[in-house]
Design a protein that fits this description.
Layout (H helix, E strand, L loop, with lengths): L6 E4 L3 H12 L4 E5 L22 E4 L6 H11 L3 H8 L1 E2 L4 E4 L1 H14 L3 E5 L13 E3 L7 H11 L4 E7 L2 E3 L9 E2 L15 E6 L1 H13 L21 H5 L27 E7 L6 E4 L8 H8 L10 E3 L2 E7 L2 H4 L5 E2 L2 E6 L9 H19 L12 H12 L24 H27 L1
Parallel strand pairs: 1-2, 1-7, 2-6, 7-17
Antiparallel strand pairs: 3-5, 4-5, 8-15, 9-13, 9-14, 10-11, 11-12, 12-13, 16-17
Helix pairs in contact: 1-10, 2-10, 2-12, 3-4
């Protein structure tokens, strides 16, 4: 039965789109406000809903031993639109779930616009949403408009934190030299969208690696504006030159690690390797994995063409930076993502301090379900902290130290410990098994109601 009251959602990214789907699926009318193309951002290139602005990877799809893979499975069981679109448009990527970014975004948008309870309004919400909206979910992501960000800072009485997300370059496949580069996933591991040879690998010997690191550190980089100079990076999305500055071998143990790979020309593991992952369904575009950067564009072309196999590389997109603003959520939000200072406002996605596509969509899923429960006159029920969603929500809304709060990906370190002396892979599997049992119990009332 459809509700006579509606929920307004500000922001049509992954979190906002997922929240809209959950609400509409529960019979609640939704007005989805997306400012693009009326007002653009530094990172988006289209006006599509759920546009992927950085990587096209949803990371590991292993629900048994990886926390983000477990989150994938929980979302699927909760009827996630984001996961349905990702599964439909997956690409070969070893053990990861990578997607054709254009097909994925188009599927999300078409599904939402076809739903009779979803209305899309293309306009910026400048400042705080009006109180007469009654129920609003703010899912404006890392690129919240300045007017809204300033209004939120005034309302909460404290400044929002900020850092930079760096964007990796994308290379045209035909410009990669197949006589040097070869296809292989680490340890030949197969994934949900392909086989065991889903990455293109460009090998470097010791001399080439050291020259690359030296060039990276010496390269001309984007200068920060005065107000941006003290902004920290999120550790999981650091520019490659920032990683390199921590030590001469840091890249060999990070994005350029050669473990699990063998150069077919020599039969040996290379000193270091640069990996590229398929970025579109046609296989014509490949992104350089982990190569987020703030090098100036000319420096990127010059330096990246020193990598064996990329000496003739043609770039469909070069790397860049965008600013990311988020709330001190442990201090500002309650357990159902409502702003304590104004409970008619609920938050979702990266603005809450979660990090990553899947995490953002998962928090959007929860925000939508919480808002729907409220409109039914129910008390919203949070998933148990033993689940991936519950552990992430708990961290955002109180599990983290508010004085040192920084963005966080889902990981098993957020989960309550398992009973018994279980370690390593068995521990992860035990945590995952417990999570899915508890998650199904949490979903059970909704399933019974649907029946």
């Amino acid at each position: 039965m459809a509700s006579s009251r509606k929920v307004h959602i500000v922001g049509g990214g992954l979190a906002g789109s997922e929240a809209a789907w959950q609400l509409a699926s529960a019979g609640v009318p939704v007005v989805l406000h997306e400012m693009r193309p009326v007002r653009g951002t530094e990172a988006h290139v289209t006006d599509s809903l759920a546009e992927l602005v950085c990587s096209n990877s949803f990371r590991s799809d292993d629900a048994q031993s990886n926390a983000v893979g477990l989150l994938h499975e929980e979302m699927r069981r909760a009827g996630s639109l984001i996961m349905r679109a990702a599964d439909t448009h997956k690409l070969p990527a070893g053990g990861a779930l990578a997607v054709d970014r254009h097909g994925f975004s188009a599927a999300v948008q078409e599904t939402l616009l076809a739903h009779p309870l979803v209305t899309l309004e293309r306009a910026e919400v400048a400042g705080l949403p009006p109180a007469e909206w009654e129920s609003t979910i703010i899912a404006t992501g890392p690129l919240t408009s300045p007017a809204l960000a300033e209004a939120l800072a005034k309302l909460t009485g404290e400044e929002s934190l900020a850092f930079f997300d760096a964007i990796a370059p994308i290379v045209h496949h035909e410009s990669i030299d197949p006589s040097i580069a070869w296809k292989q996933s680490r340890y030949d591991k197969a994934g949900p969208g392909g086989g065991g040879a889903d990455y293109i690998n460009c090998p470097l010997d010791k001399e080439q690696y050291e020259a690359f690191v030296a060039g990276l550190l010496a390269g001309d980089k984007t200068e920060f504006k005065e107000w941006e100079a003290s902004t920290p990076y999120f550790q999981g999305c650091q520019p490659i030159e920032v990683i390199a500055s921590t030590g001469p071998q840091s890249l060999r143990f990070g994005p350029m690690k050669p473990v699990g790979l063998r150069d077919p020309r020599t039969g040996r593991r290379p000193w270091a390797v640069v990996q590229l992952r398929q970025d579109n369904a046609l296989g014509t575009l490949w992104n350089i994995v982990g190569f987020q950067t703030k090098l100036k564009h000319g420096e990127q072309v010059r330096l990246f063409r020193t990598i064996p196999g990329l000496q003739n590389a043609e770039f469909a997109r070069l790397g860049g930076l965008h600013r990311n603003t988020f709330l001190n959520s442990p201090r500002l939000l309650d357990g159902t993502l409502r702003l304590k200072a104004r409970p008619d406002l609920r938050f979702a996605g990266q603005i809450t301090g979660c990090e990553g596509y899947v995490e953002s969509a998962a928090v959007g899923l929860l925000a939508g379900r919480f808002a729907a429960a409220e409109l039914r006159g129910e008390t919203p029920s949070a998933p148990p902290v033993t689940t991936a969603m519950g552990a992430l929500l708990n961290h955002i809304t109180g599990g983290a130290d508010a004085s040192t709060f920084q963005p966080m990906n889902v990981n098993f370190g957020l989960f309550p410990p398992i009973d018994g002396n279980v370690r390593g892979k068995e521990r992860k599997q035990a945590l995952a098994n417990r999570a899915l049992v508890d998650f199904d119990r949490w979903l059970a009332p909704d399933r019974l109601a649907a029946e």
